[in-house]
Design a protein that fits this description.
Layout (H helix, E strand, L loop, with lengths): L5 E6 L5 H11 L3 E6 L5 H9 L6 E3 L5 E3 L3 H14 L6 E9 L4 E3 L5 E2 L15 E3 H7 L10 H13 L2 E12 L2
Parallel strand pairs: 1-2, 5-9
Antiparallel strand pairs: 3-8, 4-9, 5-6, 5-8, 7-9
Helix pairs in contact: 4-5
């Protein structure tokens, strides 16, 4: 999928990342870079990417994780399919692939997560695919939260727009120690 806008928030790096991102954004105008001289944290960085974005949909990628090459395509297709079935939902999430030197495991997330279920456990994970407007409606990420900001956002997102639906494929990879 090539019709996209990629926002990268360089949250206080000191290793040449800023210069690299500036060079890449000069080559490909779909890449938009925001630089912080000092780290301000994940909620601030995520909101800085969501707020100016122009696309209908939003998803996130943490700096130490990887999207599988078909992630965006499959999420867009799943969104359209769920809408065509008349489902009411707030976001999509996927299985995760956990990779370590010793082994590789795939998460076993449920097919549907409701607002009340998130009080027991964050079965969604740390990234969703949703409409940008839904995140704005839910109030974006709480920039005062040093931890658990994903769960907090997901609870508000699901309370505002309905359950989260699983795309049952490992399309997000996390390296673990």
């Amino acid at each position: 999928h090539r019709d996209l806008e990629l926002w990268v928030v360089n949250d206080g790096s000191t290793d040449g990342t800023a210069a690299y991102l500036d060079r890449m954004s000069a080559i490909d105008p779909r890449l938009k870079a925001v630089h912080h001289g000092k780290a301000q944290g994940a909620p601030v960085a995520r909101n800085l990417a969501i707020t100016p974005a122009q696309g209908e949909f939003i998803t996130g990628l943490d700096d130490d994780d990887v999207f599988e090459p078909t992630r965006i395509e499959k999420l867009l297709r799943a969104w359209r399919d769920a809408q065509a079935r008349g489902e009411q939902f707030s976001c999509l999430f996927t299985q995760d692939l956990f990779v370590s030197p010793e082994r590789t495991e795939t998460s076993r997330k449920p097919s549907r997560v409701t607002f009340s279920e998130l009080f027991s456990y964050n079965t969604i994970g740390n990234q969703v695919f949703t409409k940008r407007q839904y995140m704005l409606d839910a109030g974006l990420f709480d920039e005062q939260m040093p931890a658990w900001q994903d769960l907090d956002m997901f609870m508000r997102l699901l309370r505002t727009h309905g359950p989260a639906l699983l795309v049952d494929e490992p399309l997000y990879t996390l390296e673990v120690a």
